[in-house]
């Protein structure tokens, strides 16, 4: 006997009145239009154009280094390029193995291939969604580790670095701008921190990225790796090119343009206000969901003292035969009138990570296949099978929005428990 109203997906009344909208994304900062307009009129649209006064890319680099508590920031055109040149800057040998968590966006691993290395996939802790130090300690021949801060949780980089025993740990902080671990900002805990500023991220200019590091020599090398072997001159002269052909390594062009940089300077101004709203809403949702059975949030480490929500997973306890997470995502979307979606499969089964499809990667692809023949990912499989995701923009609303999410999650969980899904 079903105690509840029928689910919206089955024709029942939805938890949320269709007349009420959700916050949209992206949110343009107050200074965004004038910043873009200024670049348009400046006559300098790229760092490779003749110098015409202060470069927005330099402004953003300075501001983002300060935001992440690091000494240097090298902006890039994408988060994946940031990962590629971070890997290249390590000076590893062709085919060296790099540990990557199995539950992340494909770029965390495809960037490793692009740098001539082999990603080795490791399981994640199903409670947190992140790589755990134990999984790192179990590896014997790893040349570097990519620690991904996933969804809304940060990986324990200090513990991972200890377990990695001298091997470089690169933070993939594409989903974690502004998060803090024991007071230290995401991106500042490893050898380098890589960020994405793609449209869906909390700090965005459409497509963009950045690397932060405390090491000045590495920062110079990263500049060359992302600007066709060129780095900034010591002093910039009006009408002359800002980059000089220093050529200590072979680079490629991964430069962020001046429009993107100016937008990021403006958007950074509102990032912490947005974090405050999202995080207060998340705390409220945590309280509202605490008494609900059958669905929960990810476990949060007490060491993570500031959240940066990218996606918020709602993790269901289980599904009856014939029902899966896609059904739960559809049912929640119908209750809430906002897109609730499913995590992608772990990378070991991802159609987006098939290196054998590119002939130039053949030797690396062969190693990749061999290394993964007998590896298992029960933690990543469990989470990918039981979670559905909400985008961070949903958390830019208010208390009523959180009440709706909690009510919808509870309604769907009760129907699952009662086997009343049709
Ligand atoms: C964890 C992670 N790493 C890397 C990237 C790649 O960033 P981009 O799309 O800017 O290349 C993303 C983007 O979604 C990501 O989520």
Hetero groups: pyridoxal-5'-phosphate
Helix share of residues?
A: 25-40%
Number of helices: 12
Q: So, the CATH homologous superfamily of the domain at 32-269?
A: Type I PLP-dependent aspartate aminotransferase-like (Major domain)
- Computed Rg: 22 Å
The ordered string of helix (H) and strand (E) elements is HHEHEHEHEHEEEEEHEEHEEEHHHEH
| Backbone shape | globular
Kindly report how far apart the N and C termini lie: 13 Å
**CATH class category of the domain at 32-269:** Alpha Beta
Strand content range = 5-15%
Number of DSSP strands? 15
Question: Mean pLDDT, as a whole number?
Answer: 97
Side-by-side strand order of the widest sheet: 1-9-8-5-4-2-3
Label the structural class. alpha/beta
Description of the molecule:
The protein has 422 residues and is of the alpha/beta class. The chain has a domain at 32-269: Aspartate Aminotransferase, domain 2. Helix content is 35%, strand content 14%. It is built from 12 helices and 15 strands. The chain has helices at 32-42, 56-67, 79-88, 107-114, 133-137, 157-164, 216-226, 258-289, 325-336, 362-371, 378-386, 399-417; strands at residues 72-76, 97-101, 118-122, 144-148, 168-172, 180-181, 184-185, 192-196, 209-213, 231-232, 243-244, 295-296, 304-306, 311-316, 387-391. The chain has a 7-stranded mixed β-sheet, sandwiched between helices. A 3-stranded antiparallel β-sheet has the order 7-6-13, with no helix packed on it. A 3-stranded antiparallel β-sheet has the order 12-14-15. Helix 3 packs across helix 4, helix 8 (258-289) crosses helix 12 (399-417) and helix 9 packs across helix 12. The radius of gyration is 22 Å and the shape is globular. The mean pLDDT is 97. Pyridoxal-5'-phosphate binds next to helix 3 and helix 4. GO terms for molecular function: pyridoxal phosphate binding; transaminase activity.
């Amino acid at each position: 006997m079903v105690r509840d109203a029928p689910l919206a997906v089955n024709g029942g009344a939805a938890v949320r009145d269709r007349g009420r909208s959700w916050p949209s994304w992206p949110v343009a900062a107050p200074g965004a239009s004038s910043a873009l307009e200024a670049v348009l009129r400046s006559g300098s649209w790229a760092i490779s154009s003749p110098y015409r006064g202060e470069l927005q890319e330099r402004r953003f680099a300075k501001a983002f280094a300060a935001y992440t508590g690091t000494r240097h920031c090298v902006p890039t055109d994408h988060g994946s390029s940031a990962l590629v040149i971070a890997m290249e800057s390590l000076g590893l040998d062709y085919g060296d193995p790099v540990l990557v968590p199995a539950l992340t966006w494909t770029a965390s691993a495809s960037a490793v291939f692009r740098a001539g290395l082999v990603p080795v996939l490791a399981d994640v802790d199903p409670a947190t969604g992140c790589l755990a130090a134990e999984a790192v300690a179990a590896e014997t021949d790893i040349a570097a580790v990519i620690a991904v801060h996933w969804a809304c949780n940060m990986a324990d980089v200090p513990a991972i670095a200890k377990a990695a025993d001298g091997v470089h740990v690169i933070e993939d902080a594409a989903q974690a701008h502004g998060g803090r671990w024991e007071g230290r900002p995401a991106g500042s805990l490893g050898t380098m921190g890589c960020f994405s500023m793609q449209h869906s991220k909390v700090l965005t200019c459409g497509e963009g990225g950045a690397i932060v590091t405390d090491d000045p020599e590495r920062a110079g090398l990263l500049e060359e790796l992302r600007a066709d072997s060129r780095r900034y001159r010591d002093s910039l002269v009006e009408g002359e090119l800002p980059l000089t052909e220093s050529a200590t390594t072979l680079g490629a062009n991964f430069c962020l343009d001046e429009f993107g940089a100016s937008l990021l300077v403006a958007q950074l101004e509102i990032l912490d206000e947005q974090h405050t709203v999202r995080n207060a809403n998340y705390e409220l949702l945590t309280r509202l969901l605490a008494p609900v059975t059958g669905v929960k949030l990810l476990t949060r480490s007490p060491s993570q003292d500031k959240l940066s929500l990218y996606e918020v997973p709602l993790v269901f306890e289980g599904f009856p035969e014939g029902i899966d997470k896609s059904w739960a995502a559809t049912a929640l979307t119908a209750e809430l009138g906002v897109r609730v979606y499913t995590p992608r499969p772990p990378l070991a089964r991802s159609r987006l990570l098939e290196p054998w499809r590119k002939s130039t990667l053949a030797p690396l692809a062969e190693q990749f296949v061999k290394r993964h023949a007998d590896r298992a990912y029960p933690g990543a499989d469990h989470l990918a099978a039981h979670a559905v995701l909400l985008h961070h923009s949903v958390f830019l609303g208010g208390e009523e929005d959180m009440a709706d999410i909690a009510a919808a999650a509870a309604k769907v969980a009760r129907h699952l428990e009662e086997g009343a899904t049709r």
